[in-house]
Fold this protein.
Amino acid sequence: MNSALRRLSVAVMLLFGLLLLNANYLQVVRADALHNDSHNPRLIAEEYSRERGPILVGGKTVARSVETNDRLKFLRQYTEGKLYAPATGFYSVVYGATGIEQAENSVLAGTDDSLFVRRVIDLLTGTPPKGGSVALTLNAAAQKAAYDGLRKLNARGAVVAVDPSTGAILAMVSTPSFDPNGLASHDTATVRRNYARLSSQKSQPMLNRALRQTYPPGSTFKLVTAAAALESGRYSPDSKVDNAPSLDLPQTTSDLPNENGGPCTTSGEATLTIALENSCNVAFGDLGLQLGPDALRSQAEKFGFNSAFEVPMRSAVSRFPENPNPPQTAQSAIGQFDVRATPLQMAMVAAAIANRGVQMAPYLVQEVRAPDLSVLETTKPRPLRVSVSPQTAASLTDMMVKVVEQGTGTNGQIPGVKVAGKTGTAQQGPGQTPHAWFVSFAPADTDPKVAVAVIVEDGAQQAEISGNGLAAPIARAVMEAVLGK
């Protein structure tokens, strides 16, 4: 054999070796990933051949599969689709799944390991296979109150409500929303057309603002700054704070003024309580300078900033800036500069304060059941982190109650119920309309049942923009729904 033939033989052998390696890699290492890929046509046909399990809210089905006569045996249907879309997501033959449809796909599709015995029994008995069911933690009345409140304003925005003692998510609304039914059709041309229409809209209706969008939290972040001050041991609710009309920011010719252009209070010296009650920028900007960026960042991280929540969908990461200089630190202390937070994050700040300083892990899935209704899994509440001491939580609660009773958050009041809250008007930049925020919890005096965060983007383009005027009424309606008021 001459050298040319030997080289050709070696090359052919190498190619056969690589082919065998690739075949083994695909069939062994990558087998599960390829089988479970949402774009795998065999998987699609397999999943649509069996009845997908329902998604439930308060025992009521909000997503289910119905039998059809077309090439794919079952069609996904969503009742009150726009109301629950941020939670359910969609299940599409073209674009796969999002939301709970994606996060709990193996249970809903009936392919989860916990259903293996059930699948074997179905195979032996000839019973058509079915998926399991997923029950959500959402409170139907609270969800509707949140959605109706934002829709009444014709606003882009979001609402998150949480049970402070467990972390269960009671409401998760994002507006504008979308109808998942338009993406669940078996007509691929219709699905692509609907997806393109939704994707092209400037208002981003498929964006889950409650979990995935971050905003400057504005004055609602003063809760974090106040917590850092109290936790430092250098301040109490009655400590005197800067009562000047404006704060001379170091290293710059700019000043930080109060919203009203005057002092925090005209009746003498201001305390930390009065500063929170009246949302005084000067007092909290100065507190930020006194505490320093490291203390603010540490406290923010104890509330969950700079990390993500899994509910089970993953939230965007709320941010506190890494190395702000002194003027940036003062701005950060009032929730501006590069501070960013999701609505879920700010609801978790309020929830931690309500729960005596302990932040519980947020969750959206209450229970998972097999097709025969046997319980496969029930979510057990678990502490996530200690955000503040019980003493600090109690002080913050008293201060937040004063905000609602006689300060900037009076529209959050509920007759016969003590409400703790904090308003926020978050600036976006020159020429941009500010966002309106309100965070709260109730009852504030005993065993809080609900913590809420509301953001109204761009103040819904209203003439007068404030957290008290726009966001607080929505939060109040959500709290009333949970409390049965």
